[in-house]
Amino acid sequence: MRQAVGIKKSWDPIWEQIFASQSWGKYPPEELIRFVASSYYHAANRRDIKILEVGCGAGACAWYMAREGFCATGIDGSPSAIRQAKELLGRDQLAAEFICGDVANLSELVKGRKFDAIVDAACLQCNRSAQVTDIVDQIFDVLLPGGRFFTILVAADSHGYGLGEEVEKGTFDKITEGPLKNRGLNHFFTLEEVKGLFCKFDSIEIDFTLRSFQNRAGVYKNWVCTGVKPT
Q1: Which residues pair with 153 in a beta bridge?
Q2: Which CATH architecture best describes the domain 2-154+190-228?
Q3: Are strands 171-173 and 165-168 parallel, antiparallel or unpaired?
Q4: What are the residue ranges spanned by the domains of the chain?
Q5: Considering the chain, what is the average pLDDT of its residues?
Q6: What is the bridge-based pairing of β-strands 186-187 and 171-173?
Q7: Are strands 2-3 and 50-54 parallel, antiparallel or unpaired?
Q8: Which of 111, 116, 167, 190 is surrounded by the most beta carbons within 10 Å?
């Protein structure tokens, strides 16, 4: 594990409390598996494909990518998450690089390196709107030309919107109900905001998933988005 100290700050310390007190599974979201499979399973040498995950948590996505033969790197601000990720991969004798640091400092954390793909499974949404835009700008910069960006973002019409302390338009802390309860600060994205985040990218695809929970007590919607850095 490489430790790095950032300049900017966006990471919410509540995530260290969460990872230090809870166990997490080792399987990634189906949508991320579909993205990796459709984009890179055809590669002649998967080890040549460098995939970076922002907000890797306890390593589920890195475990999957390493298991499938890709060169995986994960960044997370939680030391407990990074420890769990290393233990998860170690149990299956898999290798990936893990960096403990705030993704707000992405360019500095991976200074001088470029990636074929950068993936996010609901990390970016745990930031204020301006910070998300800045992180996506850094993602664009550290992608190789033709590289792909994949992200999962909670949608504005999901249960939980308006149920906490509003810190800015569309961003809530201390959400009181639903899947994001006790998950710190979250920004709920409109379609227009998602389109704005991808304004520099080509071949943009914006889809969504929708699920109910607790016997249809509420509905949770995620934007599932990809874009390609122009060559």
Answers
A1: 223
A2: 3-Layer(aba) Sandwich (3.40)
A3: antiparallel
A4: 2-154+190-228
A5: 94
A6: antiparallel
A7: unpaired
A8: 116
Q: Can you tell me which residue has the tokens 């993602």?
A: 139
Q: Supply the angle between the helices 60-67 and 30-40 in degrees, to the nearest 10.
A: 30
Contact between 185 and 173 under an 8 Å Cβ cutoff? The reply is yes
Predicted pLDDT at 7:
53
Q: Measuring CA to CA, how many Å separate 208 from each of 37, 189, 205?
A: 18, 12, 10
What's the token pair of residue 228? Answer: 């390609």
CA distances from 210 to 25, 36, 218 (A): 21, 21, 11
Two tokens, residue 214? 């607790």
Region 70-95: mean pLDDT is 97
Query: Phi and psi dihedrals of 62, rounded to 5?
Result: -65, -40
Look at residue 2 in the predicted model and tell me its pLDDT.
42
Residue 96 CB neighbour total at 10 angstroms: 23
Q: Is the dihedral of CA 94, 95, 101, 103 positive or negative?
A: negative
- Whether residue 80 contacts residue 104, with contact meaning beta carbons closer than 8 Å, is answered with no
Question: Which of these, 188, 10, 2, lies nearest to 103 by C-alpha position?
Answer: 10
Tokens of 92: 């299956």
Give the distance, in angstroms, between the CA of residue 47 and the centroid of all CA atoms in the same chain: 21
Q: Are 88 and 26 within 8 A, CB to CB? A: yes
Q: Detail the DSSP E strand segments found in the chain.
A: 2-3, 50-54, 71-76, 97-100, 115-121, 143-154, 165-168, 171-173, 186-187, 202-213, 218-228
